[in-house]
Structure formats: C-alpha cells, structure tokens
Amino acid sequence: MDTASVPSPTRSSNPGYSPEEWEARVKLAATYRLSARLGMTDYLGNHITVRAPDNPHEFLINPLGLFFHEVTASSLIRIDVDGNILEDTPYSVNKAGYVIHSAIHRTRPDVNSIVHNHAIAGTAVSAQKDGLLPITQNAMQFYNRIAYHDYEGPAVDMDECARLAEDLGQHNVMVLRNHGMLTCGRSIEEAFILMVNLDTACRMQIAAQSSGAPLIHCSHDVAERTAQGVEAFFDYEGGPMWPALLRLIEDEVTDYAS
Fold it and tell me: What fold characterizes domain 3-256?
C-alpha cells in the first residue's frame, strides 16, 4: 500500500472539506491509529497536529474525549493558533495540546506537523538528567539534534508558548523534561517517523539501563557521523517506511478514513 492508495470518501460525502484538507485529515487520523497500535499513547493526554493546507494559521487536532484508536478523519477539529474552534463539533480541545502545538505552529513556518506523546519509554528518558544517550545506533540518529525544555507544570499557561518555541529553536526533536517527547516535520510522515524512531531509541535505552551492565557511550565522532548518515540517506516522505506503517492498520482503513 502506498499513500495514494489510502481510501478517501468522495468530496460529496464530506461537503465541508476540500480534497486537500480531506487528504490531510485521513493521513492525520492514520497517525493516531498507528500511535495506538504501537503503544505510543497516554489515554486522552497526547496530541498530533497538521497545519491546514489552505491556511498556515490554522491546524487540525484530536478532539478531547476520544482515545487514539477512536479518532477518524471527520472527528478531527480545525482550530486557529489563537485556540478558536472553527467548525461545528460536539467536542472541545485539550488546552495543553493547544498551548504546545500553537507555540510551534506560530513560530516555525517550515513545520507542518507535530507529534507529542507521553509514551512510557520516552517519558522515562525525559525524567533522566542526561536525556537520550548515544549508546545505540538508533539513538545516535538524534545526536546533538535534540532540544530540551524544562518542566513548568501542566502546559496550560500561554506564557510558556514563547519558552517552548525558544527552546525548540530550529530542531525537529525536543525532550519535554519530566513530561514526554515531541517531534515535528515538514509533513505528517516526517514528524511521525521521527517519533517512531525516537520511541524505539528510548525503549532500547531503558532496556539497556535495566540490565545493570555498564553502558558503552560512543565517541562524538562516531555519533555525529551516524547522525549525518541518517540525515543524508533517510527519506521520510518518499521512502518505504510510511507505506509499511500504514500496512499495520490496513484492517482499520475504512474506519479511520471516515
């Protein structure tokens, strides 16, 4: 299955959406289902967004009250960077999700999609003083390419937006200390694959630490060379990873794309 083969209901059955927005909704709903399938969830507490195709100041986000495995393309909510809900919906939006995502959508025009979660391994690593360690090939992909943001309490204070954006800078990966992980990208595919890779690296770190054996920290040169190699050769948008991930939820395709 490639991304073009993901079924999309006709425009006539979704009169409020342009073809471009509907495609974005279907793809975003798929990431929620994949997150649930891969265990990267925390009940109602996490969020994935994509910028609206026709307006850079608006984005789509999950409705408060639905688990990730329940999200569909039509249940996603369109809001603007000021938090205003722009369509009729029986749901509201989690304020913490709005604060975190709007901070980045406002300040990073190159970012079209953001993934934030409290997956167990990633959150455990976020509570470690040294963060993600260069002890596996998977982790070295992110070497010197991770931003860190100190915990300030539940992210419901609009004053935190500026600090979130400042700490992220031009990075596409950020550890929210004592909180969780965040990735962003030019596309849904890029942001989500980064999170999949980051979650894998975190799970490997927790597994290695739990053994109690001494850990091998690779040198700066090796870690940097590994990161540069991944950047040069990993095709987030046109490579085989995204279609392969979609095959994990083939049984849900007519559900989430509705």
Answer: L-fuculose-1-phosphate Aldolase (3.40.225)
